[in-house]
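Hi R.,

Here's the chain you asked about this morning:
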Amino acid sequence: MFSGIVEAIGAVRSLRKDAKGARITIEAPGVLDGVELGDSIALNGVCVTVVDFDDRKFEADLSVETLRRTNLGELAVGGRCNLERAMALGERLGGHLVSGHVDGVGRIRGRKNEGDSIWLTFEAPVEVMRYVVYKGSIAVDGISLTVAACDGETFSVSIIPHTSEQTTLTEKKDGAAVNLEADLIGKYVEKLLAPHADSRSRDGITMEKLREQGYA
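And here is the predicted structure, written out as tokens:
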């Protein structure tokens, strides 16, 4: 599990693809303290496993499924990426619970400046938007962000200067792909309530009412 608080920005040193997937090498001295083979690192919000490393870089294997469902296959040598090591039990949870399992790929559809902040608007697949709620949490390229506005097809976030400086998000151009992971809690709530979705419970609570109130 991760928190969505980016620890360092890494750089792609190689990306070798074949029919079976890919092997990526990331220069990342800022997240390699205490690393061991088999450790998990979030790479642009994607949980990858360290299969080789030295004091300045690590390597990870990317499956065909990962390349298909994320933006990692679009990374180029020299490109920058957000990195976070897995949480340790007992640490403060500064963002929200992030699994590193991407739900879908979105696109940047607009931006505007507001004071010192930058508003970014994203277009997202319907399977992600169903869990997006106003003032709820979402992970974008591994960054824990608060939803500042949303409608049926897009949502917006406000990026403060610290987030701009410590992540790659505002470097991306309009139309760029981003990895999206919806709040884990919402998905569990929907799963638990699914058997009752077509009928009212004794107290009148329905899936539609929960969605209207922002609970599902």
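One quick note: The CA atoms of residues 15 and 24 lie 4 Å apart.

Cheers,
M.
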